[in-house]
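Propose amino acids for all 391 sites.
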């Protein structure tokens, strides 16, 4: 069959236009980061740590993040044996994969440890420096700690326990369990998911209770056994027996208070929860209202933290001990919860957690970048006091 020159020209234009469109779609969300489907995701996670952006092509925030994500990928993906792989998953294409990981909004950023058993959700600023700091803290810093023999180098297992038909009865047989029965497609479940993750983080060091979830679209036997008729259903179990159904507010504070009340009723001491916010000592709590006035006429060493941050939780007892050690000196040890007082943290250019800064008479003096041991922190305070006396 013969084609005219104009027909061939039109066909060529259409072909190359299609290539440009395909290329542009890929470029929209970065060509340097690795694109995963369900199979390659598992292979990639098994091979290395992965920092993954779960996105949708139509999402404006995803498009805004894409160039920065691509720059991050250029930094960490240039070597095959790098400490982390920067990757992405299109949730409009990989709906089952994103449902498995309870992706409820776009973009969602998660850093998975090698093997995928644990992950850390990123919720900080989306500029390149903040993302690099997060990777540095979670990946590179962890390796440096391991090389130095730091016993805290290994992260705990994922705090939220995943149950199914096979492991349910054996897992909950001993102890207290607060279980979320859910379906991945359920809108209320999606809204609850990050709060439920946070609740699990809150009780991660407390041995009296476990926070868990079970997907009723996959574990139909157990969900039918406990007459789950709506999602999410939240049930409290003690030593394998269903004790109560939770029907209150689904805020973190309400769920936490309910958990503590149930534990107290079961004979657990309510005040034994190892939580940053429950520790009471000489550390001053600073807020948007009192931050500037409190710093105006003294030397203050401030920890900017987030309650979900693992490194912050590990530092918390040392920070409290530091406050006790220097209480007779002319310095105050303080803290700011950046999830509650974001404007203070933004004004002080906090890019990662914990961030430690020292102030004199309301003016910033220095960031602390050293070891977080009690001895080194004390030495830093002493040097700051000596410098003040020299001025």
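Proposal:
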């Amino acid at each position: 069959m013969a084609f005219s020159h104009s027909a061939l020209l039109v066909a060529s234009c259409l072909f190359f236009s299609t290539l440009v469109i395909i290329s542009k779609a890929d470029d929209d969300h970065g060509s340097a980061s690795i694109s995963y489907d369900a199979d390659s995701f598992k292979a990639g996670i098994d091979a290395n740590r992965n920092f993954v952006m779960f996105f949708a092509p139509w999402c404006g925030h995803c498009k805004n993040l894409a160039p920065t994500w691509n720059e991050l990928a250029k930094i960490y993906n240039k070597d095959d044996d790098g400490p982390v792989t920067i990757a992405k998953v299109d949730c409009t294409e990989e709906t089952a994969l994103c449902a498995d990981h309870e992706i409820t909004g776009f973009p969602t950023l998660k850093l998975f440890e090698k093997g995928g058993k644990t992950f850390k959700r990123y919720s900080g600023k989306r500029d390149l420096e903040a993302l690099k700091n997060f990777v540095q803290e979670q990946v590179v810093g962890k390796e440096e700690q391991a090389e130095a023999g730091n016993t805290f180098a290994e992260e705990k297992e994922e705090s939220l326990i995943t149950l199914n038909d096979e492991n349910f009865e054996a897992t909950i047989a001993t102890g207290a369990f607060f279980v979320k029965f859910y379906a991945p497609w359920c809108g209320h479940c999606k809204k609850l998911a990050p709060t439920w993750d946070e609740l699990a983080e809150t009780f991660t060091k407390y041995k009296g209770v476990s926070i868990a979830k079970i997907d009723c679209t996959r574990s139909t036997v157990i969900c039918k056994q406990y007459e789950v008729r709506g999602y999410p259903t939240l049930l409290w179990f003690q030593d394998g027996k269903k004790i109560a159904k939770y029907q209150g507010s689904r805020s973190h504070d309400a769920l936490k208070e309910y958990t503590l009340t149930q534990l107290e009723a079961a004979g657990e001491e309510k005040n034994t929860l190892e939580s940053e916010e429950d520790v009471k000592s000489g550390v001053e709590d600073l807020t948007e209202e009192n931050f500037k006035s409190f710093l105006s006429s003294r030397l203050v060493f401030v920890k900017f933290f987030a309650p979900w941050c693992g490194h912050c939780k590990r530092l918390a007892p040392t920070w409290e001990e530091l406050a006790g050690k220097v209480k007779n000196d002319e310095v105050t040890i303080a803290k700011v919860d950046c999830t509650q007082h974001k404007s203070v943290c933004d004004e002080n250019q906090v890019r990662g957690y914990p961030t430690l800064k020292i102030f004199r008479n309301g003016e910033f003096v220095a960031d602390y970048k050293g070891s977080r041991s009690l001895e080194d922190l004390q030495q830093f305070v002493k040097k700051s006091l000596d410098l003040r006396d020299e001025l």
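The longest strand covers residues 176-182. The CA atoms of residues 55 and 375 lie 44 Å apart.
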